[in-house]
Amino acid sequence: MVLCKRFVGFKLSNTFSGSFAFALFSIWVAGRYFPGVEQMAACALIALGLASLLTKLLDANREAIWIKHVSPWSANRKLSFEFGSIFLAIFCAAAAVQFLFGETLVNVDLENIYRNEFYQLFMHNFQILITGTVLAVIYRAGGVVLILAWNALHWAEAIFSYILQIGSKVGVSKALLVLSSILPHLILEALAYVIAGLAGVFISIAVFKYRFGSAELYRVSVACLTFLLVAIGVLFLATTSEVYLAQKVFHSLGG
After folding, report:
1. Which of 107, 116, 127, 190 is paired with 15 by a 20 to 30 Å CA distance?
2. DSSP readout, 131-194?
3. Where are the domains of the chain?
4. Closest CA to 160 of 213, 119, 205, 102
5. For the whole model, what pTM was predicted?
6. 172-209 vs 118-139: helix crossing angle, rounded to 10
7. Cβ atoms 20, 110 nearer than 8 A
8. What DSSP element (H or E) covers 69?
9. pLDDT per position as a tens digit, 167-226
10. For the purposes of burial, counting CB atoms within 10 Å of the CB of 71, is it exposed (0-12), middle (13-18) or buried (19 or more)?
11. For residue 36, how far is the Cα from the chain centroid?
12. What's the half-sphere exposure (Cβ side, CA atoms, 13 Å) at 160?
């Protein structure tokens, strides 16, 4: 059992390190050869490069559930962590580039950010979640990586920019407190997009693999619906965290 846990940890570590290295390379290529559209180019390059990795992870997940009869909960939880590690790797790569170079610093209006109403914010994030799910249905692993890369790159740039601006205004220590209040809703949002993306990939594969009305398609459909409902629930928690934690801390310390 201990060896098994070490093996899983090793694979997850490889997933993170490999994704981190490739994301760094993609961001460099985008900045070097696609000036003016660096973020879009980086997203496309990352999606193209990491799609094969996600496909392998999905194949391993399918084999674990259907052939090795591993509990779907255990197999899908492991897959979610692996997808989450890919998102974290892209985010860390983008944050490292911002920290070391910071040439794309965005001028953020500190007076107007983090002033969203709950319903408005939830519906905005819900539209992103549905868009990510549709991309996953159409492009499968590539669609999932695309939505994860876009959010990771955008968040890294935005957070770096306004944390620096807050730090120059109220000090580094308070800026770090603001960052700590922002991270929970970012993590929950990323998790929601990962879970919804998995639902999209699974149903896309199942529709082409199993005949309509079959027990297999029904089983996958129920699982995907459950995934989507869980993703919406996690997104609700993320929105709650942003409205009632991040916004309050942001405006009390940084505003």
Report:
1. 127
2. HHHHHHHHHTHHHHHHHHHHHHHHHHHHHHHHHHHHHHHH-HHHHHHHHHHHHHHHHHHHHHHH
3. 2-254
4. 102
5. 0.82
6. 40
7. no
8. none
9. 777 777 777 887 888 888 888 999 999 999 999 999 999 998 888 889 889 989 999 999
10. exposed
11. 24
12. 22
